[in-house]
Structure formats: C-alpha cells, structure tokens
Give the backbone structure.
Amino acid sequence: MFRSLARSSPRLTILRNHLNFGKNPRYIMSVPTTMKAVVVEQTGGPEVLQFRTSHPVPTPQAGQLLVRNNISGVNYIDTYFRTGLYASPKPEILGREGAGTVAAVGPETTGFNVGDRVAWLATNGYAEFTAVPAVKTVKIPEGISDEDVMASFLSGLTVLAFAKETYPVQKGDWVLLHAAAGGAGFLMTQILKTMGAKVIGTAGGAEKCALVKSLGADVVIDYRSEEGKDWVKLVKDATGGRGVDIVYDSVGKDTWEGSLEAVKRKGTIVWFGNASGPVPPIPLPKLSPKCVKIARPTLFGYIETREEFEYYTNELFSLLKSGQLKTKIHKVYPLEDIAQVHKDLEGRKTMGKPLLKP
Ligand SMILES: NC(=O)c1ccc[n+]([C@@H]2O[C@H](COP(=O)([O-])OP(=O)(O)OC[C@H]3O[C@@H](n4cnc5c(N)ncnc54)[C@H](OP(=O)(O)O)[C@@H]3O)[C@@H](O)[C@H]2O)c1
C-alpha cells in the first residue's frame, strides 16, 4: 500500500515499522520519496550547480544510514570537484559533510538508531537526505549544536590531524599560516595558539586581518596590501631573519615560492590546498639548500580507521565543549543559493565557514 501511495504522490511519506523488514532498511521516521538537492551533471563554473526539487531520496544500503540533514558544510574542496581539478564521477551531488538526524538505518548497520543526532563525512551533502556510511558517522554530544559541528567538522579534523601528525607542532615553534581567516584557517589559528606556537597569519583585507588578530595570532599580514605584498620579508623580520619552523600553505600557486623562501633551514612546509591553483611540480633539488621537508597531506589519510576517526572527532568535540575552540559561521545559505556560496568562496569573500540549510 505504501509503495503505491508513494508512486501516486511523491510528497506522501513512507512509514515502515523497524521490526518487520529483515534485510531492508529500518524506518520509523517519515521519509518522503523525493527531496531538494543540488546536482552537477558536468564540470564547470558555479552555473553547473543545478538546484532540483524532486530528486529521489536514496535508500540506505548495508552499512549505511539515511540522514535528514539539518545543516551541511561547504568546503573549498567542493569547488575542485565542481571544476574538475579533482576527478569525481558525474552526475554528482557535491558536499562532503552534514549534520542532522538519522531517518533510517540500513540493513546490517549497527551502532545507530533512528532519531540519533549525528555528523557525517562522505559525499552528497547538498541535499535534504544523504545515505552515508555509518563508519564515517558520529553521534553529536549534548551541548554542541549542529551548526557548531558543521563549522568545524571537516575543517577542524583537518587542522587537528595536520598540527598533530603531519608536523607535530611544538611549543615555541614559529608557524606561518596562509588564509588564516578562512574556514580551516580560523580554526587552525586557535589550535596553533593552544599548542603554544607563535603564529604568523596571512589574510586578504583589513577585516580578515582583524579577525585573525583577535584569535591571538602574534603577527598578521595582509598579503593583498601594498606593504603585505612582500610578506616573505615581513616573515623574515618577525623571526629575526631565521624564517619559520613550519608553513601551512593551502593557497598553493600564488604562495608556494614565497613559502619556500620564508621557511627556515631544516624547516617543514605542509602544502594542503589549491585555493589559488595547484602547486606546480617542484624539482627536488630546490629543497636541498635549506634541507626543507615537505608534505602534501589529505585529512582522509588520517581518519581511515574507525579508531582514528573517533580519536579526532572526540578531540574536536572536547575542544568545542570546553570552549577552547570557537567557531565562526560566515553565513547560512539556503540550498537554492548554492551557486552564490561557490562564488563567494572563490571570490575570497568569506570569513570562517559557509553553511547550507537544505
Ligand atoms: N588536504 C586536505 O585534506 C584539506 C582539508 C580541508 C581543507 N583543505 C584546503 O584548505 C584550504 C581552505 O579550505 P576552506 O574550505 O577552509 O576554504 P577557505 O580558507 O575558507 O577559503 C579559501 C581562502 O583562500 C584564500 N585565497 C588565496 N588566494 C585565493 C584565490 N586566488 N582564490 C580564492 N581564494 C584564495 C582566501 O582567503 P584570503 O582572502 O584571506 O586570501 C579564501 O578565503 C583549501 O585550499 C582547501 O582545499 C585541504
């Protein structure tokens, strides 16, 4: 009966009792058959983001949960999949994180119940519902809002992994952090300060620089200002001519050469993003004069196992709960405004994290 009703009107809900469905998903909550979602059919500019109102709601498979997203995160990486800088199959629903309520539990999926408030890392986040792997989903503890989690989930886990494992930051280290007012940068400035580092943050424009300063950065450089254009010299001046112990560079094409100059002898550069375009292939002999170490990490390499994922999510949640880590939401955009979010991100107009309300 439910199926035929659902066929006749896509907005009718399907209600299923969780006790009777064996290997089928367990639904208790009402779930529509269609939903709002943003689909990308082919790579291109923000105009390829197609807002749809009757996209099929996915059915959770073995090991999956169906999550009704309350809020989804927008990350710079989403633009790489949109443009094709990073390859991914199309058509595709972009968006690599969400927070909301478990609406159905897939067959052979354990550890979660319908109604649990969760955050997940996967794909298909620009949608009302997402079928996500339970293994990359965590329950959100009481006292932390979905919005706080989304403003710090993918970005915050990245920052923690890169500051603890890629290069274990030491008290007293001089750190150069580019794009320090961004979604990841805003969190990283704070994490680095809690680790006792001396932070030199770069950001574009007075407002962004004031924000970075307010987080406790020791030196802030507006690398788009006349004076800040020579940010390498300013970094050298701030460190007594020595250079920094570590550079975290997610800007890429426009900053990589300066980062190589600004790092100290025996220092480390972590290149982790392409906001201005990718870092070109670097001839290895370029690293020899100063014996520089380089890393090109990705978050997902540090949270591959459930144990690793839980380690970093627990760490993040305890920082949020204790108030040691503050979040900043640039703006919550309605799902239909997704093209504007991408324009704002790529136009360097955001401070902190843009979120989407599906
Ligand atoms: N490897 C990983 O696993 C991983 C994980 C998360 C994030 N990331 C990377 O970390 C970076 C930050 O990500 P996010 O989502 O938090 O973005 P975001 O920092 O909020 O936005 C990117 C920022 O980069 C700066 N930027 C410099 N040159 C730019 C240009 N030509 N075009 C656009 N922006 C430019 C802008 O800040 P200013 O105006 O201050 O210059 C802009 O606000 C991205 O490169 C992302 O790919 C990597």
In short: The first strand starts at residue 13 and ends at 14. The two ends are 29 Å apart (CA to CA). Residues 1-21 have pLDDT under 50 and may be disordered.
